Amino acid sequence: MEERPRVLPAGDQAILIEFGAEINPRINRQVHEFTRKANQNKIPGIGELVPAYGTVLVYYDPFSLSFSRVNSWIQKVFSAGTSASEFSQTVKEIPVLYGGPYGPDISFVAEHNRISVEEVVQLHTSQTYLVYVVGFSPGFTAMGIVPPKIQVPRLANPRIKVAPGSVGIGGLQTGIYAVESPGGWQLIGRTPLTLFNLNNHPPSFFQPGDYARFYAINEEEYLEISKSESRNPK
Predict the structure, then answer these.
(1) Labelling 123: which of 71, 73, 138, 189 has CA 20 to 30 A away?
(2) CB atoms within 10 A of CB 58
(3) Looking at 86, 102, 131, which one is the last position of a domain?
């Protein structure tokens, strides 16, 4: 029988549920299973649930609920189970212009792994990636796991500014910066899609549990899609 996750106090207004300590699709699926089921079965006093790679942070009102009461509710959610049919099977296709000024670190990724730039693109576009988390900066999407031959360490000195749409690799993961922000991932390309818009609900293009697949485009296609996105913001 599988061991239940650990339930730990996180201050006086939150509880941390630990499913595991590694980047693992099975563990992350358990995180999303619990989060969906918990949101469907909230009791008064339970606030926001924040899923991450292997944990869920549950906020609650300490004036209406005790730690033991929240823990009891969590155990009931565990016991309820979750149907696999509830999970997103959405695969979102992402156009990317690789290399050049749009992906200034792609040559390093190739050299680090002793392969060609063309192989980096081929391998990066060959996978369907699970979206583990959306966060860090608005809409930032971390997904994985990238093929071993293109895995690469993050920058020793992060950039102060990374352009919106930049696609990077950091260790086992690939990700997209949805808005301009600092960042330390190795940048290999950029998508012209708008991935964060406060006028949308939810504002982020990606949600945890989605799947993503990248495909390569040329600069002409990039500019064409960019114009379309600016005319018709999603």
Answers:
(1) 138
(2) 25
(3) 86
Name the domain count of the chain.
2
Predicted pLDDT of residue 66: 94
Which pLDDT score, from 0 to 100, does residue 87 have?
A: 55
171: phi then psi, degrees, rounded to nearest 5: 65, -125
For 6-23, the pLDDT digits (tens) are: 999 999 999 999 998 888
Tokens of 130: 């699970």
